[in-house]
Amino acid sequence: MLKWYEVKEQAAGRKRLMLLWYIYKIAGRRPVKFIVFFVTFFAFLGAPGIRKCSQKFQKIISGNGGIIQAFRHFLSYAYSLVDTMEMYTNKFGIQNIYFANEDDKKVLFKDFKAKNGICFLCSHLGNINAMRVFFKSGTEIDGINVNMFLEVNQCKIFKDFLASITPDDPINVYPVEGIDLTTSIDLKEKLDNGEIVFIAGDRISAHNPNSVFPLKFFGHNTYFPLGAFKLSLVMDVPIYFIACTKDEKGMYAIHVKKFELSGKRSQMLEQLKEQYVEVLEKLVKKYPLQFYHFYDFFCDKIDL
Length: 304
What we know:
Oligomer: single chain
Order of helices and strands: HHHHEHEHEHEHEEEHEEH
Shape: globular
Number of strands: 9
Distance between the termini: 15 Å
């Protein structure tokens, strides 16, 4: 089975990415998307293993395991990278972002204003980078310090490219592979000071692949990272699910849901696991092309 950390980066190379950036600055978004379409097409043809994983994945979550659907999956991801480039460089306006549910927004803003710290369990659904725009928008919660855990070695070419064109980054990044007791203590102090943290809950650790828990996802066996959920719970702050999905108008909807947990810590951990997977499954069903996993996400053998 192909693991996510075994997937090689299908990037165009830093020089070509810089060329795209210069084209974008001179001619705008449309020519860049035109070029990205053809780059994605040839990358799609040259990656049969990843293509097959996408077909299997789409067959389960959308009922369509055809090659056209797989290409649309690839292309959706490629266009999300163009959006990410704009989000990192302040070219994507706050007017293009909205909350999917106003009641959930009110709950979230209440916790923001309490300044007790918040832990967001995110995923690879949509484009979480839209939150960069949100936290620099000049809204009433502007100025909150943001911390995020990322796999440093994954998509390194693209990340290095973003770092080279970004004037300033409001987010403090922790490498996932460097988490230790000191990291937990440091993070706890920041949350106690009203800061927030983002942790992905849908990819197992490349450095501790056995620290997982199994749950049914779309009726199939799937492993999720146990450490992400334990870390979220031990911080003792409000925990939210969050995702940012793109609509047909090119705008991003922020989906948030506060987890309701009670009982002993072991009971709360089980509740957190189940509620996370339940919310994620509902959204993935609605946005199948925006769940960006290009490996054997499901443990079961699946025939096309």
